[in-house]
Amino acid sequence: MKSTNPIAALFGRSPFKAMQKHMAIVAECVGEVPPLFEALIAGDQESVLRAKERIFEREQAADAVKNQVRIHLPRSLFLPVDRRDLLEVLDRQDAIADIAQDIAGMLVTRRMTVPENMQADLRALVRRSVDACSQAVTVINELDELVETGFRGPEATRVETMVETLTRTEDETDRLGIALVSALFAREDSMSPISVMLWYRLIQCIGDLADSAKTVGDRLLALIAR
Amino acid sequence: MEIIAQWGTVFVALALVFGLYMTWGIGANDVANAMGTSVGSGAVTVTQAIVIAAIFEFAGAFLAGGTVTATIRNGIIDATAMAGHPEQLVYGMLASLVAAGIWLMVASARGWPVSTTHSIVGAIVGFAVTGIGVDAVKWGKIGEIAASWLVSPLLGGFLAMLLMWSIRASILTAENPFQMAKRWGPVYVFLVGWIVSLVTLFKGLKHLDFHLTTSQSLLASTIIGVAVAGVGKHLIDRVRVDEAADRTFHYASVEKVFTPMMIFTACAMAFAHGSNDVANGIGPMAAVVSIIRHGGEVAQKANLPLWILVLGGVGIVVGLATMGYRVMQTIGTRITELTPSRGFCATLAAASTVVVASKTGLPVSTTHIAVGAVMGVGLARGIGALDLRVIGNIVASWLVTLPAGALLAALFFFVFRLIFG
After folding, report:
1. B176 DSSP assignment
2. Cα B136 to Cα B73, B80, B117, B274, B334, distances in angstroms
3. For chain B, which residues make up each domain, given as ranges?
4. Is the pLDDT of residue A35 over 80?
């Protein structure tokens, strides 16, 4: 018997749990970025490859969940938030995993070494960028609580504070990125031009991780503000 | 008249069989829809829902089911138009029961959206127009009923939205939602008992010869409300903070407070459903029995024999026990998105709307009202995702069920006339 029971048919699949699941996978993907750089600094090519494999695999898993969310979000669904705003958040979440993949790809296509005087700054930038991503995960984990409270009240305020913290972390990564670029600039003449070019791109990408994490928070605020 | 004298026993037997079949169908399908929000939010198990439904459907039918039964039985058709031909009314009512019963069976087997109320009202209008004449139908009453089909889901939705806002303001967006839930929970439980008993007892229960003044009914319902709230408070007080669950979902403990509260709305909903939908089965049955008992006289003001109400209640419970539980299980597993706080709002709003309709004697669709109430919670930004295609299905059930019921009833009316003369 086909179920066209109106009560059962009324309830669509809520996208919020799936969004959180997607973000958790993105977090696992980004979690491999620090080991990737540690392996790079140590010059351990095998570990670099292993980390890259993990990142690629998690990125694909995130893509699969993203597509599932999109498929189960037809226009006939009535959501407590704007459908486009929600898909925007999802896209930003996914962008984080994409960037992690880009970084991993860059590190294996060309063997790179980390100059001694850049190691500390690189570690700091990577750590804070990944921190920003973790904060975005915490923010997204509040989605079900926001639905519960109707995107209002102390819960909404709490999420706003979380996004503020995220924004501050992102600002910090901007400064760390500039410091790293300066260190690179000081050594430019002693490195091959291609290496220098790639390093600039790499530093940009690491910063983009934090940047995307920040936009996840910003877009979530747009959901609350409706 | 001689037809009545000759075939009277057969007519009564047919009315009982068809009427019981109809109430069985209501128990098998409709009750599950009424209890769906309670089972789906995990507040009651399927077994508990069946026990609650068995008791309160029966109570609703017995205490508050008389007015809608009267509407179905002699509110739609102008009996004076057929005073000389009581057998025509008997054929018509039997035809309506068979038509609605068959249509419900076919439609639910095919998975088409149906409403018991719409099919029985469509059937009665159908046989009256084709068999007796357009003037035999009290169109004013039909207009009222049709309007109530539109208004009642909207009212249910509006009430649910208000409740959701109220619960959000008093509990969910408070600084310490768990304590607030414990403080306000009994008040909301009071509301459940108070509204349902006030509407039911207002001005007394005529068919039971139980009369009350306005202030007496207010007093009685307040006493019932307080008593219910007392039981509710006892259950709510036993709810403890679940720290482990709160770590993954901060409002897990708050929702746990709403779980015992939903037992009361489940009871209210079963009561409301019994008070309205049982009439679809026993209304035509009562009409036939009354004509035969009065030797062919179409008595306009005849009392409803209590045993017919009891029979209706029994039919529903049997339907529930034989098939309804399976529908309930299906619904329960499908709507896990509904949390107890949402379920509470939707169910209380729907139950209140239905009892008001029952008191006014308007046959409404409990299912459509429940859908409207859930939509209302959704409009208050309370539910993750609602599929609006259901609205289209409901409109379709209107457009398809009314003519289908009418045509089938007209057909069976002529069949009965051929058989009995």
Report:
1. S
2. 14, 8, 20, 29, 44
3. 2-180+200-217+245-420
4. yes
DSSP assignment of B269-296 equals: HHHHHHHHHHHHHHHHHHHHHHHHHTTT
The band of B173, judged by pLDDT with boundaries at 50, 70 and 90, is very high
CA gap B207, B221 in Å, rounded: 19
pLDDT in tens, B36-67: 888 888 888 888 888 998 899 989 988 888 88
Q: Please report, rounded to a whole number, the percentage of residues in chain A having pLDDT higher than 70.
A: 98
The secondary structure element, H or E, covering residue B138 is none
Number of domains in chain A: 1
- Assess: ipTM above 0.90: no
Question: What does the block give as tokens for B135?
Answer: 């003037």
Contact B339 A148 (CB under 8 A): yes
pLDDT in tens, A131-169: 999 999 999 999 999 999 999 889 999 999 999 999 999
The answer to whether the Cβ–Cβ distance between A9 and B378 falls below 8 Å is no
Mean pLDDT within B173-181: 93
Helical pair B252-293 and B177-201, crossing angle rounded to 10 deg = 10
Helices (H) and strands (E) in chain A, counts: 9, 1
Query: Taking the mean position of all CA atoms in its chain, how far away is CA B278?
Result: 7
- The total of other beta-carbon atoms located within 10 Å of residue B48's CB is 15
> Does any CB of chain B come closer than 8 Å to the CB of residue A108?
no
Give the one of B33, B251, B387 whose C-beta lies nearest to A11's C-beta: B387
Residues 38-97 of A with CB under 8 A from B: 73, 76-81
pLDDT at A2: 45
Question: In chain B, positions 295-314, which contact chain A (CB-CB < 8 Å)?
Answer: none
Q: In chain B, which residue's Cα lies nearest the Cα of A83?
A: B385
CATH number at residue A53: 1.20.58.220
C-alpha neighbours within 13 Å on the C-beta side of residue B13: 4
